[in-house]
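Reading a protein record of the kind used here takes only a little practice. The record below shows the convention in full.

——
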Amino acid sequence: MKETVQFLAHHGYWLLAAAVLGRQACLPVPANLLLVAAGALAHMGELHLAPILASAVLTFILADLAWYEAGRRRGEPTLHLLSGFSRDPAASVRRATTVFARHGVRILLISKFVVGVDAVAAPLTGASGVSPAKFVLFDGAGAALWSAFYAVLGYVFSDQLDRVAVHVERMGAVLGVVAAAAVAISFAKRVARWLTFVRQFSLERISPEELHRRLNAGDDILLLDLQGHRESNDEAPAIPGAIRIDPRKLERYKDVDISPSREVVLYCASPGEFTSARVALALRERGITRVRPLAGGLQGWRVRGFPITANAGIPFRWAVRS
């Protein structure tokens, strides 16, 4: 046990920064227990309280700024990524959004004490348009409150340092095993759900012949071209009447109003349908259930000699918001 304490005393500040960084990366790292131990060592003169708090708070801000920027740039996909291990990611995002709408940026003051809220608070703040300066102010204050609470706790109960070290080791091991098992089970469930969805989605494909016939008949079909991520997307061939979007930046189109009753057909440049399936899943989460992939993609359409155009449409109301 003495080796653990000596190691923490010798590498305290760097170890603490690494623990906080791991915590903000959603890893099962007991940063709070390390702060308790660091506070106890500060009382014994092995470490200093001010650098302990400065190290923790600065690392929190730097890590959270990365999530803030991810939320500002990517918005909803980032929130779904962080909520991905919950049973219902969409519901988790909605709950977090509701909490943020009620309390605003002030939620950052207490978010680190609330499991679940902490994971999405920073990207949600970025997605909500809060300025970087205001984010740093409130996030830093919240990090200082959280860090001071545990460091002072260790400082006050420094005479029980051996127990603290024991708990650091035991809790770290327990959390590691539990977290690893939870991640593995959750990942397996998500993969199973995704494969089931992809299989079901593939069975609902529309053939190029049927699409061609229905378009000529004037059926109300929204045709989405998923080549918007290509460098030469302005010149890439498309099916006449298709709307081109970037499947990697779906949050850009979150305000587009699509009637749930309208049929949507998706296609990519290649025959693969994984991109179409991902976009279809995002649309279905918005209540748009009549979504089908084009069998064979654009390649299958062209092989049959059906008409193509050099320009896909991008109506004004689909433009990226400034």
